[in-house]
């Protein structure tokens, strides 16, 4: 077999059976090798869709996906969502085709410093030496990706088409996240025993779902501490029956207010709260000076194990965890505003939905109102690069074909990777895309004020408005094969949501504000 | 004034009065400073539109444009078209906002190795030290960009908002391209005097227009040498009255055939012909072994000066240059195919149009048929990263508001940066976008065969088809405020082209194949 076949065989042996692809000429042998019934190849019209989909897929699946990208520019197009995935701890195996080694010296049009480009956002990076070593490379890349790392394998044409022999047997290495050291847990236990003031436990990473979340619920029930997440978290299990988590506000002033009375912050698989952006005369760190921060578990440690050890030290293992009750939300009526939108969402959310949340302004209130909705997972953008939700929703839907994915985004954000809609139509994915169309980069208007500008000059103001011409998202969706409708009232929004959840396949709802 | 104001003032003093922007929070002070009537800020919904527009603007204008990009991911989104611009020798000044210096250590969501990311595709790269040195940085960046270089200035928030004082007076440095050394010209002159076989002169860079092109026409008239370009060239002045240039074919086999009888190749502001991609058992270099290659002028030298010196050495300065005659093309009728499409284009092309050519399969024949059309400029993709034409057309239209821009692209390519249409509508640009909708990555099917695969497996074949669902480009254009129509016959295509050229503003024509 050739190198490309060895690559695909090894991916499959490592449990990677999903490839988000945007191929080019230099990846023809890889493409030929993908013609394998065990591998699902999903075509994306833009590389940012492929890498974002790999992020969403990882968040909802135990095994990473691979991507197929076309030389330096193909990788470049995918990097913004690689950045978001990296910050979320979502692993992926990026396979980036390159010219054959002998061709590189001629500086052909698509030649560039591909290694230099891949380095900043890859945890693991390798240029395949030749066809014989590809299998080992892929096994290592997959091991890194399974641990939540960005693995990038550069695949020169000759490594792809050359004779590789049979790939060696590379056993799957299950990722290990170590429990925190007992001394660290004991120090935190001492604080809980003698707190001298309120304690906030901030959960991140894998601790916001499953066992970690349940154990945090026990801790809250036993000690009265409050539980929160950063403003953005990779995946949170929430809704009725789950332990509820508060959300530290996004803007600096309310975040300072939220944190001001805590004596201790205990972090689990996350760091201490920092401002998303920097502003003149505004702090980067959000906690008060009088508050001490204690790391119970680092990002690459086992937060659930740390919480279990802590509960043991506190003698609270058998306490019943704090749980959110179901709140039946009546169907809202009247004008669409952040509150009625959030209520409609809470009322319509089906059991076990996946909510991908990229609404920066309009949808921001939704989080509070959906706390008591049907159980669901929420995926948020950890890297801040917009154009996140539609690709991530695409990947999440492929990972969980039996669940409805609700992708919430603003009109500005949606336009970065709008090509996702086509893949959703092609694969008939159960994704409801909600566009909050306020015809502006609304977040920037708030941020402009935060920077201390009293008012906008007309030219600067125009650069935050996307109302001229008005984007017609229903037409855009139609152009890519996705049915869509516009709604202008809370009832219509609710009905549209219900309808989209009742019918298989994708739908787009343009919420006209 | 603050650093951002100093930056904008210096850009303007350096003659840079166009900014393609996709701003974010970290660029709020820059945005505020852009509120200056002397600076034209053009909003782009995606960064690849901004950098591609800067490329098109440079090709049609003496002075570069600037871009405003938002941290690492914003730059990443723009890099594919930066790559294309770099290969074309199109300069631009990228201003990339970053967090304030004091905020970087907290690894906030949007923090990344921005310097590492910018390095591979920037000729000139600097992180602003502080507000006081920004003016000098900008003057240097602009000098580099004016010479056709990619200049990237990373602008931390504190450098932007801190007090800068009045910017120093930085005179504009006009770029100098040196004439080739006389010895090199003499060596080439000797070959022309005693050629021992046919000579091909390959023109690139600035030599494909203006004085360089005219001098090459004299050389051809005086010596009988043939004149050609590489398959892709940044800008060619062509049509009736201009010196006609042949085009070296794209695929390896016809390129070898085209070049096989030449004894000498003389290159002017370009290199010797190399294959676009590498294939197993296929050469990278396209000339026959018996052919010698002579560089008359390197890419950064003055090819026109070299040609003038050569003509002088040959005593041919006063020869009348070879010129293309006007060929009146009758309006074609019947079925749309590559030939009738090319004929319709040749017949409809208005005087002084700018043709941006990204049609990889269907439109490829157009070049031959438009040689005798009305005089026009043709811009091609030197970097091979698709998603080129719609942004470049946007920038070209802004540089030349009185000229019609015809942007030809395939359906696959168009989807990478389709957001350009919105900017074209917003700025009411005279751009006709022609989508050759063959519902496939048609080029890949040919390349698959070139790689030696006898037939496609069904899964690999599906990855080259974009027909499921069918993209409706008229709906996509409507979604972004651009009127569009579908055509299915040669007459209808011609009429649509005529109509679009007669009416101001953008239009999209979907050519259904």
TrEMBL record, chains A, B:
Belongs to the TPP enzyme family. GO terms for biological process: small molecule metabolic process. Residues 1-105 form the Thiamine pyrophosphate enzyme N-terminal TPP-binding domain. Gene3D superfamilies: 3.40.50.970. The lineage of its organism: Bacteria, Pseudomonadati, Pseudomonadota, Alphaproteobacteria, Hyphomicrobiales. Residues 378-511 form the Thiamine pyrophosphate enzyme TPP-binding domain. Keywords: Thiamine pyrophosphate. It comes from Rhodoblastus acidophilus (Rhodopseudomonas acidophila). This is Acetolactate synthase-1/2/3 large subunit. GO terms for molecular function: acetolactate synthase activity; flavin adenine dinucleotide binding; thiamine pyrophosphate binding.
């Amino acid at each position: 077999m050739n190198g490309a076949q060895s690559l695909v065989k090894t991916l499959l042996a490592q449990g990677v059976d999903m490839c988000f692809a945007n191929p080019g000429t230099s990846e023809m042998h890889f493409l030929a090798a993908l013609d394998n019934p065990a591998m699902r190849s999903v075509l994306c019209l833009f590389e940012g869709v492929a890498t974002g989909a790999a992020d969403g897929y990882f968040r909802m699946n135990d095994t990473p996906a691979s991507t197929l990208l076309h030389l330096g520019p193909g990788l470049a197009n995918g990097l913004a969502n690689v950045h978001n995935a990296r910050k979320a701890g979502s692993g992926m195996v990026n396979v980036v085709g390159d010219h054959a080694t002998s061709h590189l010296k001629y500086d052909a049009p698509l030649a560039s410093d591909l290694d230099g480009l891949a380095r900043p956002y890859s945890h693991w990076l390798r240029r395949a030496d030749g066809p014989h070593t590809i299998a080992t490379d892929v096994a290592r890349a997959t091991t890194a990706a399974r641990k939540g790392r960005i693995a990038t394998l550069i695949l020169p044409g000759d490594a792809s088409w050359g004779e590789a022999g049979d790939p060696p047997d590379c056993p799957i290495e299950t990722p290990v996240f170590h429990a925190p050291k007992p001394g660290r847990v004991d120090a935190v236990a001492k604080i809980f025993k003698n707190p001298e003031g309120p304690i906030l436990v901030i959960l991140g990473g894998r601790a916001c779902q499953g066992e970690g979340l349940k154990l945090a619920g026990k801790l809250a029930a036993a000690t009265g501490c409050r539980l929160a997440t950063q403003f953005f978290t990779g995946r949170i299990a929430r809704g009725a029956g789950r332990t509820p988590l508060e959300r530290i506000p996004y803007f600096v002033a309310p975040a300072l207010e939220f944190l001001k009375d805590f004596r201790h912050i205990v972090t689990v698989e996350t760091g201490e709260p920092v401002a998303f952006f920097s502003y003149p005369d505004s702090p980067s760190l959000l906690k008060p000076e009088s508050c001490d921060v204690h790391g119970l578990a680092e990002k690459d440690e086992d937060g659930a194990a740390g919480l279990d050890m802590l509960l043991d030290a506190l003698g609270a293992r058998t306490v019943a965890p704090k749980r959110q009750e179901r709140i039946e939300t009546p169907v809202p009526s009247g004008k669409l505003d952040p509150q009625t939108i959030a209520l409609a969402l809470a009322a319509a959310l089906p059991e076990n939905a996946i909510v991908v949340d990229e609404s920066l302004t309009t949808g921001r209130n939704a989080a509070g109102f959906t706390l008591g909705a049907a159980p669901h997972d929420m995926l948020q953008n950890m890297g801040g690069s917009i154009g996140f939700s539609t690709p991530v929703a695409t990947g999440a839907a492929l990972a969980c074909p039996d669940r409805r994915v609700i992708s919430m985004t603003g009109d500005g954000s949606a336009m970065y990777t709008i090509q996702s809609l086509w893949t959703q139509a092609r694969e008939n994915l159960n994704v409801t895309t909600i566009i909050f169309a306020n015809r502006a980069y609304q977040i920037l208007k708030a941020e402009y004020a935060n920077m201390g500008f009293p008012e906008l000059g007309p030219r600067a103001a125009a650069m935050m408005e996307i109302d001229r011409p008005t984007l017609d998202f229903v037409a855009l969706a139609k152009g890519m094969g996705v049915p869509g409708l516009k709604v202008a009232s809370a009832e219509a929004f609710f009905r549209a949501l219900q309808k989209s959840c009742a019918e298989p396949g994708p739908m787009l709802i343009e919420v006209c504000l």
